[in-house]
Amino acid sequence: MDRRIFMGAAAALGAATVSRAALAGLPEAVQQRSAATQPPLAPTGGVPYNPVVTLNGWTLPWRMNDGWKEFHLVAEPVEREIAPGMVARLWGYNGQSPGPTIECVEGDRVRIFVTNRLPEHTTIHWHGLLLPNGMDGVGGLTQPQIQPGKTFVYEFVMRKSGTFMYHPHADEMVQMAMGMMGAIVVHPKDPSLHRADRDYVFLLAAYDIDPGSFVPRVNTMLEFNLWTWNSRAFPGIDPLVCAVGETLRVRVGNLTMTNHPMHLHGCEMFVTGTDGGWVPPAVRWPEVSVDMPVGAMRAIDVRFDDPGDWAFHCHKSHHTMGPMGHRVPAMMGVDQSDLVERIRRLVPGYMAMGEAGMAEMGEMQMPLPENTLPMMTGEGPFGPLEMGGMFTVVKVRDGLARGDYRDPGWYQHPAGTVAYEWTGPVAEPQRPPGAPPDAGAAHVQVRKPGGHGSHH
Amino acid sequence: MNHLSKRIVRLPALAAAALLLALAGCAGLGREAGFDAMASAAAQRVGATPAWPRDDAGRQRVDDEVAQLLAQTLTADDAVQVAVLQNPALQAVYGQLGVAEAELLQAGRLPNPRFRTTRTASEESFKYETALTLPLGALLTLPAVLGMEQRRFEAVRLQVTDRVLAVAADTREAWVAAVAAQQELHYLEQVREAAEASAVLAQRMARVGHFSQLDQLREQAYLADARVQLGRARGAALAAHERLMRLLGVDNPVRVRLPERLPELPPQPGEDGELERFALGQRLDVQAAKADAAATARALGLSRAIGMVNTLELGPARLAEQGEPLKRGYEVSVEIPIFDWGGARVARAQAVYLQAAARVGETAVNARSEVRESAAAWREAWALARQYRDEIVPLRRRISEQNWLRYNGMLISVFELLADAREQVNAAQGSIGALRDYWLAEARLRRALGGRLPAGAVAEAVPAAAAASTGRLVRRED
């Protein structure tokens, strides 16, 4: 009865253009302007749960309305800081891309208002949720598309707990290439099940934003140049923080066009859940790289015995790089010293790069095209990190207070626990008789770094 | 017999005295007077004074002046001055003027009278017969011959002035072409240099194993192509330089130092209307036609001018209104007097005179059309050169800046950077071409105007500043 009245109101609203006054009957469409990780949204009543932390994101507030958890998503153009120094003009929800995480509890009745402020129609598909077919959000198949200016209502019951996501199913290629996506976390009705001490969630997204431009090229299929976690790239991705001995859960969804071996140093990882449900403990196996298939989600549980700053990244090394020229030839071993002056006469300020490798790219930061991240960057306590894209650090410390997600800074290594330089004599390697004296250098004349005796 | 002889002497003496007086008044001739008049007419039009040395001292003075002009970087104006001083063809033409002048002087002189004494002796007496004889025929034809020679001399004087203007215009154009060719050569050398750096790098890349043979051969082909282009441009620059040397009459090209670049594009050119009026006042062909009409009038014995007619308005409709002043508000005009046709010879005289008047009109109409044509071309060339200077070259420079940033980010390689440098040089080269075309169009406009530009037609050309517009790839250093 109540519901029918509400639906009628919503339909009437949908006919009008969306304005603050017109939306007065709907839950507030909360906006988020920051790309920083927001504090988790603790439940104020009902079933208690440990709220998720959306990496460089936030959780959508809701209101209770006669037993329904009501959310309001607004699909709209947004500006997203990919990393300091770069802003992307994307499409997202409620001011950011990805949209806010929708968090609820198994058995909740949820009503989600979706207002379309995009220039074209859209829908939302609730990836992985079990719901009535008419709520599945496939434009043209299970519902008419939501036209610009209209608001639609989705209503369903969260039948099972787990890790899910939402994304458009209308002009899907374009809208996902533009950054429209968000995570859904459904906690078990029984708080003792599938417990984790810290619970992070993020989505993998790839963009192709030409250096110097702002909007992704939506027709790119594979040659992306920005590999992001929650539309953030290193060094814009916040660290994950946890205490030694805690159970850290990392929920990841992959909305890129390729797989990503998620590699976390310093621990064993277990996939405890997928977007299909929880994995029975008996069939879990330990891994150090969990492959993320396309269009899939994984909940990965880990426990660290050793404190430290543990690297966490996609193991495709090109995915831990910023934008680069894939057709740029390597220059290793090509002496340019006598040419630099001549080239400078034509290209003032020319500097020869890449003669020894590309590490110098990470060391010196040179002026780049507008709104462009360096191919590799970042500075760690021991030197340049030479990273980009899908890379961050899990900071594991002893005795962190529960719920303290603040960045603890760089790890202070106890004396004698860091690799160190050997300063004694190094014997020439033993080579089999008849081998050329410098066989290693015969194929590629890599210039050996001076002063270091060891290489293979 | 004696008195007869006396009479013979007396008559021609009086006539000759009268004639000589008349001659002295009419031609204003003296040695070099004709050349000086021509020289000043030419100087007024091309801004350079011709010289025609006929002795060692004069030759020395010219040599000194040329040496002084060639001692510094040669501007277009200086080149014109050198040409009118020592262009060999002009020197020959000056000689022609001298010949015509001498012939005119000769024609104005009476043949020498001959004095003859005859002694006739018989046995008883002898007689001296003294006679002073003058060629009476020459005396009678002298005015006609003098008139003919006068006209011939005038014609030669105009021809010579015209040749001076032509050589001045040719020299100006040759100067522009030579400087531009030199400048283009400079850019093609940069292209060659870029291609060379690319090729050397590619060779090293292949040696180490980064490049395939194909990649390396491509760069080498670029280089070969750049070298060919440079060779061609060298030939063209040499030809342009030598053409200028010929016009300057310089036998040792090493003596001539041309500026490294063309003068900068001047600010906005002026309006056309003024140019046409200016041309009609300055052009020799218009003046010659007017002089011819005046001579015709004199020959017809027309003396009483009753008004002026604008030859640009002559036409069948206007002929009916002969005698009416036809000036009404016409801005550009070429006027000649019209006469009282009274008397029996009316029809013929009128027809003959109007024929000459129509020729004045034809010359003036053609002159105006030529001015409009060359002024339009000049304006067009100016707009194009400005577009190159203000739009294309800066755009290329900004593209290079962006490419440089991309190189910093390892988004492109040094090969793309060098290819871009070649593109930028091409734009700079196009800009030089456009600037050259502007200065050539300006020289042609001068020619159409009859020598020089009116003051204020355009602001003075600024010699290219040494640093500001080197065309080198200027980029801010971050």
Topology:
The complex is a heterodimer of chains A (456) and B (478).
Chain A lengths: L1 H14 L37 E2 L8 E3 L2 E16 L2 E8 L8 E4 L3 E8 L8 E3 L23 E7 L4 E6 L4 H6 L4 E6 L10 E10 L18 E4 L10 E4 L3 E8 L5 E5 L4 E6 L2 E2 L10 E4 L4 E7 L4 E7 L25 H7 L12 H5 L13 E4 L2 E5 L3 E7 L41 H5 L13
Parallel strand pairs in A: 1-11, 3-6, 5-10, 11-14, 13-23
Antiparallel strand pairs in A: 2-3, 3-4, 6-8, 7-9, 9-10, 11-12, 14-19, 15-18, 15-20, 16-17, 16-19, 20-23, 21-22
Chain B lengths: L1 H26 L5 H14 L9 H16 L4 H11 L1 H21 L5 E8 L4 E8 L2 H73 L4 H36 L23 H11 L1 H16 L5 E6 L5 H4 L15 E5 L6 H63 L5 H36 L29
Antiparallel strand pairs in B: 1-2, 3-4
Helix pairs in contact in B: 1-6, 2-6, 3-4, 4-6, 5-6, 6-7, 6-12, 8-11, 9-11, 11-12
Brief account:
Chain A is 8% helix and 30% strand. With 456 residues, chain A is mainly beta. Among the domains of chain A are: 2-18 and 27-196, Sandwich (Immunoglobulin-like); 324-363, no CATH class.
Structure characterization notes:
Chain A has 456 residues and is mainly beta. Among the domains of chain A are: 2-18 and 27-196, Immunoglobulin-like (Sandwich), CATH 2.60.40.420; 324-363, no CATH class. Helices cover 8% and strands 30% of the residues of chain A. Chain A has helices at residues 2-15, 172-177, 340-346, 359-363, 439-443, and strands at 53-54, 63-65, 68-83, 86-93, 102-105, 109-116, 125-127, 151-157, 162-167, 182-187, 198-207, 226-229, 240-243, 247-254, 260-264, 269-274, 277-278, 289-292, 297-303, 308-314, 377-380, 383-387, 391-397. In chain A, the strands form five sheets. In chain A, strands 1, 11, 12, 14, 16, 17 and 19 form a seven-stranded mixed beta sheet that branches. The longest helix of chain A is centred in the first third of the chain and has 14 residues, at 2-15. Chain A is globular. The N and C termini of chain A lie far apart (76 Å). Chain B is mainly α and 478 residues long. In chain B, 68% of the residues lie in helices and 6% in strands. Chain B has twelve helices and four strands, in the order H-H-H-H-H-E-E-H-H-H-H-E-H-E-H-H. Chain B has helices at 2-27, 33-46, 56-71, 76-86, 88-108, 136-208, 213-248, 272-282, 284-299, 316-319, 346-408, 414-449, and strands at 114-121, 126-133, 305-310, 335-339. In chain B, strands 1-2 form a two-stranded antiparallel sheet. In chain B, helix 4 (76-86) packs across helix 6.
